[in-house]
Amino acid sequence: MRSFRTVRMEGSVQNTTQRVAAIHGLAGFGRASLTIVIPTLSSLGIQVCPLPTAILSTHTGFTGPSFLDLTDEMERIVAHWKSVGVTFNAIYSGFLGSPKQIGVVSRFISDFRSDRQLVVVDPVLADDGKLYRTMGQEMVEGMRTLVAKADLVTPNLTELAFLVGEPYSETTALEEIKRWMRRLADNGPKYIVVTSVPVHETGQSSVIGLDAQGNRFWRVKNERIPVHYPGTGDTFTSVLLGSMMRGESFPAALDRAVQFVSLAIRWSFGFDHERREGVALESVLHTLRQDALSYTYESL
Question: Closest Cα partner for 234 from 93, 92, 39, 36?
Fold first, then answer.
């Protein structure tokens, strides 16, 4: 087994493995945010440095969770990281607890950004045509500014509609969705990935990716499974990011992320446990270390 050593050089903390700053919430129960991000990226050989945005008793899919806002502590953590010279190969933000935290994350990106670094924003705002109950229009406006600083953005279809200021509909035509993605890319991101896009002609679901620099769209289809698990968006983006950091092409990384999430859902679906707990991630993580047997992505 490979071992990695951390060394201190010229006042900075450096590492011989790749390192991600993960800016997400931490829920004590229910697989979501950091309890998904840390094991998933670690399984892909990536060191995760968590910057918690909030501590919750459960994720927000449960009623009445306790919620400790860590905005002030985030500022102190960031200041200490700067003082010891920590560097990152990627910056990855997800659930944010308040509009003020968008400013914290924006400054973090400006302060820690470097060449050949991947900045990922998963704009956790909404699903099924409506905002989450902890989100409001101020968060939407703030997220638009944060997305502009990202290299890779991973909204679901509802979030894409909010980000571009268009009405959401499950029946939105593919060409219209592609136009929305181009508009989002015009603001700065190099890669746009939209999840939960219906394939109307087959009844399937799909993920669509835009490589704005190469001006290419990619799609990966998957069968709809009649169940919802929280945390699958965190799982998807984590696998996508980790795969790209390991050198996989953009469409291959898309494919791997879709396949892994589908596997996790199918494994979990057959068991009679509380679905709000999330997918049985621990049972399928080992498959991330295996080479993909096939790819199903297509060019659009």
Answer: 36
Which amino acid makes up residue 270?
A: G
| Owning domain of residue 30 | 13-283+291-299
Task: DSSP letter for 276, please.
Answer: G
For the domain that residue 40 is a member of, what is the CATH number? 3.40.1190.20
pLDDT tens per residue, range 182-199: 999 999 999 999 999 999
The helix (run of H) or strand (run of E) holding residue 195 is strand 191-199
List b or e across 257-272, with b for residues whose CB sees 16 or more CB atoms inside 10 angstroms: bbbbbbebbeebeeee
Predicted pLDDT at 132: 85
What six digits make up the tokens of 44? 């892909």
Q: 198 near 206, Cβ under 8 Å?
A: yes
Average pLDDT for residues 242-250, to the nearest whole number? Answer: 96
How is residue 76 annotated by DSSP?
A: H
- Cα(3)–Cα(59) distance, rounded to whole angstroms? 34
Please give the structure tokens belonging to residue 298: 């297509």
Task: Give the model confidence (pLDDT) of 10-38 as tens digits.
Answer: 455 555 789 999 999 999 999 999 999 99
